[in-house]
């Protein structure tokens, strides 16, 4: 994006800061600088209001009711499904299953599709960038069925080694799991290319989109993946709600993994028959208010514009990268040219946890630790990093506050002299 367009985009996005009431609250007497968006994003008024309005005006259980409120509530819930479809550009709303979040979406695929399709000797290929939630469910499954996990290694700049990845794929590969954007390093994986290679080997592909959907336009049809998972709370929506996209022809042949109300067609003590998709995968009363909040959150980012958000966050990322790299004693982990707004770093002589605590006294909220990516930390030979992760409301001034707080921490520890 050229400078004049960025100059137009930046105020457009930054005008939105006032939409997030929590950003106005002081923390420890200081203005909050919230840089922990990879863990969860803050919520705009429209999302908070939508949930409040739902409970005040529309609350009723969905799908089974004959009364007006129940039908109204059902309409709102299904409108949320259509909204998620539009976010991901899925071909049809039936391809969207509501889950508690990314973690539950991946567990659904492992337990339903995985149990039915993986057998002893089969292989699951993952990348070295994966979050624990795209590792552990596959490990549990592989242990049960006698399949194996193969891992595509990560290069020094934090990218998947594509040659090594290609070499891992073969006739035994049944599933490939790829994180779209690494939560620990910010690397954006070439998911369309990786999916094409996996398909050539005859494997299905699950993309973990937890860190992607809020930061750039996602198109599951263009990626070509079979499954795509994300969490509402990382896209300005509520916690406890998220979604799985699954290609219709695959989903309709999958068996339910949780039984109960709402997922059946008929029940007798001898046998039950199951509802069509996606209801087959939504047993029990779902998080209706969560879906309403998620709907409002997606409508919000669509209104701001995902291209504008991506351009703005990229500007802050580039600025933050320059600033951090100019600070003596600071080393960025993850320096790919293809990155979303995540700055992971280590500071010589200061443990990431100490750093996080000191920054907190300055009102700067970051995350410190292994970021649920322990194998990746092992790859880099570090226990963890400090991580600043961006959202649409972050500014260059937030980066300045981070740098000032880092200088203070270095002073306190007597480190950082050039
Ligand atoms: N994958 C990635 C890349 C993530 O960043 C996260 C959350 N940190 C998850 C999966 C898990 O998301 P959730 O806890 O919302 O299920």
Alpha carbon gap, first and last residue: 34 Å
**Overall average residue pLDDT:** 95
- At the fourth level of CATH, the homologous superfamily of the largest domain is Type I PLP-dependent aspartate aminotransferase-like (Major domain)
Principal-axes geometry comes out as: globular
CATH level 3 topology of the largest domain: Aspartate Aminotransferase, domain 2
Q: What ligands are attached or bound here?
A: 4'-deoxy-4'-aminopyridoxal-5'-phosphate
Strand content: 15-25%
Helix content: 40-55%
CATH architecture of the largest domain: 3-Layer(aba) Sandwich
Give the C-level CATH assignment of the largest domain: Alpha Beta
Instruction: Give the number of DSSP strands.
Output: 17
Write the layout of secondary structure elements.
Layout: H1 3-14, E1 26-27, E2 30-31, E3 33-34, H2 45-58, H3 68-88, E4 96-99, H4 102-117, E5 123-127, H5 136-145, E6 148-152, H6 162-168, E7 173-179, H7 191-200, E8 204-208, H8 220-223, E9 227-231, E10 242-246, H9 248-251, E11 264-267, E12 272-274, H10 288-304, H11 306-325, E13 330-332, E14 342-347, H12 352-361, E15 364-365, E16 367-369, H13 374-380, E17 385-389, H14 396-413
Parallel strand pairs: 3-15, 5-6, 5-7, 7-8, 8-9
Antiparallel strand pairs: 1-2, 4-10, 9-10, 11-12, 13-14, 14-17, 16-17
Helix pairs in contact: 1-11, 2-10, 3-10, 4-5, 11-14
Bound molecules: 4'-deoxy-4'-aminopyridoxal-5'-phosphate.
């Amino acid at each position: 994006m050229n400078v004049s367009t960025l100059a137009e985009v930046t105020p457009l996005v930054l005008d939105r800061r006032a939409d997030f009431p929590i950003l106005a609250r002081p923390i420890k007497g200081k203005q909050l600088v919230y840089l922990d968006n990879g863990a969860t994003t803050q919520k705009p008024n429209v999302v908070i209001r939508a949930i409040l309005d739902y409970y005040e005006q529309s609350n009723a259980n969905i799908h089974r009711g004959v009364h007006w409120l129940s039908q109204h509530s059902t309409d709102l819930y299904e409108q949320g499904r259509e909204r998620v479809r539009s976010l991901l550009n899925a071909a049809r709303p039936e391809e969207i299953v509501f889950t508690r979040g990314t973690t539950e979406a991946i567990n659904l695929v492992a337990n339903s599709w995985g149990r039915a399709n993986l057998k002893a000797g089969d292989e699951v290929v993952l990348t070295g960038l994966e979050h624990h939630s795209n590792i552990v469910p596959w490990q549990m499954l592989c242990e049960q069925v006698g399949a194996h996990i193969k891992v595509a290694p990560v290069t020094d700049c934090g990218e998947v080694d594509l040659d090594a990845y290609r070499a891992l794929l073969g006739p035994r590969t049944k599933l490939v799991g790829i994180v779209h954007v690494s939560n620990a390093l910010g690397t954006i994986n070439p998911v369309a290319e990786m999916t094409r290679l996996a398909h050539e080997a005859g494997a299905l592909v699950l993309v973990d989109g937890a860190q992607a959907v809020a930061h750039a336009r996602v198109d599951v049809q263009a990626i070509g993946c079979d499954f795509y998972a994300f969490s509402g709370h990382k896209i300005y929506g509520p916690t406890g709600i998220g979604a799985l996209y699954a290609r219709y022809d695959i989903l309709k042949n999958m068996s339910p993994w949780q039984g109960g109300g709402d997922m059946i067609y008929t029940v007798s003590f001898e046998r039950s028959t199951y509802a069509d998709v996606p209801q087959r995968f939504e047993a029990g009363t779902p998080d209706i208010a969560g879906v309403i909040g998620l709907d409002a959150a997606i409508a919000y980012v669509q209104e701001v514009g995902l291209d504008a958000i991506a351009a703005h966050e990229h500007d802050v990322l580039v600025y933050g990268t320059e600033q951090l790299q100019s600070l003596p004693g600071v080393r960025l982990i993850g320096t790919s040219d293809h990155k979303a707004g995540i700055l992971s770093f280590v500071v010589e002589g200061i443990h990431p946890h100490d750093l996080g605590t000191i920054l907190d006294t300055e009102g700067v909220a970051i995350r410190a630790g292994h970021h649920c990516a322990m194998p990746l930390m092992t790859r880099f030979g570090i226990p963890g990093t400090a991580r600043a992760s961006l959202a649409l409301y972050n500014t260059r001034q937030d980066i300045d506050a981070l740098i000032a707080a880092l200088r203070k921490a270095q002073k306190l520890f007597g480190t950082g002299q050039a």
